[in-house]
Amino acid sequence: MNPFKFSMAQNQSQAVNMLVSNNSAALLGGGTNLLDLMKEHVAAPTELIDITRLELKTIEKNALGISLGALAKNTDTANHPIIRSDYPLLSKAILAGASAQIRNMATNGGNLLQRTRCSYFYDIAMPCNKREPGSGCAAMEGFNRMHAIFGWSDQCVAVYPSDMAVALSALRASVRVLQQDGSSRNIAFDDFHILPGQHPEKDNSLKHGELITSIEIPENKLAAHSAYVKVRDRNSYAFALVSVAAGLALEGARIGDAHISMGGVAHKPWRALKAEAFLKGKTASTANFRAAAKAEMAAAKPLSHNKFKVEMGINSITNALEMALKG
Amino acid sequence: MEKEEKNKSIGKGIDRIDGILKITGKATYATDYPAKNMAFAVLFKSTIAAGRITSIDAEAAKKSPGVLTVITHENAPKLNVKGGLRGGALLQGPEILFYGQHIGLVVAETFEQATAASHLIKVTYQQEAHQKTDFEHEAKTPVMPKGKELQDFVKGGGKAAVKTAEVTLEAQYETPIEHHHPMEPHSTVAIWEGDHVTLYNGSQIINGAQTAAAATLNLKPEQVRIVSPYIGGGFGSKGGQWANLVLCAVAAKVVKRPVKLALSRQQMFNSVGLRQRNIQKITLGATKDGKLNTLAHETISHTAINDEYIEPCGDCSKIMYDAPNALISYRSVPMHVILPTYTRGPGKSTGSFALESAMDELAHKLRMDPIDLRIKNEPKEDPSNGKPWSSRTTVQCLKEGAKAFGWEKRKMEPGVNKIGDDLVGYGVACGTYPARQRDSSAAVKLSLKNGQVFATVEIAASDLGTGTNTILAQTAADGLGIPVSQITMNIGDSSLPPAAGSVGSVGASSFANAVNDACTKITDELLAKSGKQFFVRPTARELMISENIAAFQIRSDSKAPVDADQYSCHSFNANFAEVRINSVTGMIKVTRFLAVTGAGKILNPKTARSQIIGGNVWGIGMALSEESIIDPRYGNFATRSFADYHVPSNLDVGKLDAMFINEIDLVPNKMGVKGIGEVGIVGVAAAIANAVFNATGKRIRNLPITPDKILV
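Predict the joint structure of the above. Result:
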């Protein structure tokens, strides 16, 4: 770990100003990923700005839905009574991720900013375009069992690791950000994380100097019909091979709106738009669920070690929708 | 008699005597030893697998804040590379033989400064043209191993006899590289006083670490002291010692200060050995009613490019079943990978996966209950050498286990036991491990204070965390007639009477017999000293009091019984697994596991149970999740952290139960202790794989059994 300056921000504008004044500064929330990256020499910020004193920890209902403070802990979010009753999908997804200890430390904003767990990204002796643009992608022809089957580029095949974000994608949330000039902007969840393209070093559309203040989830009718399915190599504390967040807004026996997002398959939470479109207006049945799953997975482009993710994805989408239907 | 048993400590499941120290953080592990003026060393490693270093630029590192020195092959003191350390990497030359070989160390005022400086070192290499890092490729041209015990073992007509069998089974099983990953990574504090060095270092074999470190440093054994009263697990990786031990001493010598060197978790992957990758082919021939006529077990294993360690995968197959024709063979695949080493249940855990899966496959083919098939082939004597068993509990383990586990609920037909989306399956598999005693010495020191007798027991034994301190205190309590609370254990120090190690399941038998013998000897000497005749032999405690002796001490040297060799002495077990598999996701959970073990005298049922279920947990990992993958392009591990190398989590482990057969077998040693360190993992993976087959009808022959293998 390289020496770095440790600063403490007392309020939001101070945090933004500190960040703006140092291009290689990083914000410190729970530190559950950043400190690992620093210990592994993957990240070497010259300054850490501790933002844990900022008042961004509340979770409260508003006219449009619910607002999650960026610095509220994952554990507190998952266990919040309104989240449990009205947004159980989010609660389930958070609790499927990491370990109790990590969730106790991890913040909601930090969760969105965690970096891929591609082992080549973490091993500084390996080429990795995400860590060192232009050095190449070791995973492309390497051990890529955990890697992407959708949306990867010739530069990067990494997947984004969060479970929480998969649920937020399905819940069609947005990310509220404080900008340098003091104004705020809302970023639709689909636009927050980005595909690797030619710039895999960028994980999201946040600009340096911007501070996530909250995550906004619109009101929905999914509470009774939602499910999170996570397939992983062990029953706890493992990243998803494939995960699916599913919610059904039912109109009688018909599906008014299907919300489906996937984890473990792409550089961002993968909105299953084809499956969602297929199911709109159709009867909620296993046959339709499976057909929707197949429609989505037909476009998958698996790598040498992760062909299984296609079948696993079909099963998992079908299963998540069945579980959502049962409630 | 009953009263006497009641007063005995041996056989009681007392709490660990050092438990409180451990949970309150007061037990001193290697890096817990404080020293004034401590400096910190950090190793840096090669980033190629084969070739040579052409240059090392350490100028920037040397100028980095706090750095005291940088040691590489260019300036390292001359060491004896044949001193007995494992795995080379002693900075004695520019040659690179595996990825992650130590190529130097930075010593600095703080750990952070040493780490930061280590990233400033620039190394250039000349790569070897043929880098042997692709097992699949290299395994096509295996070679004959050198080890005497690895030469072909042929019995009767060997493998060819399978042609005469009515029913045959031939199957290939694969197991991946696994790592020991004890909770305490390998770490050392080295402190020199003149030309003597004290090394605080977790060591499974105290005297082995001492002699290897001394020889490597070109010192006499008495110039090196190993201190290791507590060890945070080892599983074989702290049996033989590795370069880090001596490099810490070298660093301390160079900077003339105490030095602390701890491996990071990532460095653990290629610093301290591993369980090698094996391809095992089993050929079984049998009659229609299940009597084996042929058993062949052919193994191909990788090893280091310049050194050989091959775990004996065929060992179980040599003795488990009665087949008149047999072949046990090994072939080796030298690779540019760190030297493999003893890994819990070496050869037996992996070998039993192959053998016991094959037996399950044969049972299915014959439409026989796999327990019946095993009992049918129970050998009356050791099939490998004709020696009588000192005792053999396989059938008893199977029968008592079947009853306790509810084996009768198993469906013969696979894939039919369903609960919703879940498939349920039962599996059974057997295991074994040799029972041996090794030479060990112990000292007992008695003192009388205010009418109470206190004892200190000294022995250079080691406690991996399994309870050596506790069982030895219990042994001494019974041997001296003193309560456990009045006994002080002093172990884990090479300045104490020499002892065997906590390896190969010899620890408990060797240490406990040594302590027991020392207790007998001190009682004998006190008796002689008293000059009296007693109708009932008094205890050492009674003699100290009656003769009013303030202090008395002896040392005794114990050897294994000479006639044990005329018998085949082993522990045996039967493992029962129940798995529940989600047929949609392919995720597996071991919902119940029962290990029934016949291991002679169980000194402490509580610590014994913990040790057995600990072995079971690693067996679950071996079966379902643990796998280390080498990227053949680089020779590095693509699975290089606990995010990728999956040890079982609490949720992966269901209800575990351990039962012990009440067995008295005094052939292996006077106390009848057979040892349980290794056998707890033997047969576990096979029992789970067999349960997976019973649940799904899918026979998975390459570990680990991950969800993708269930689905595809």
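Chain A has a mean pLDDT of 97.
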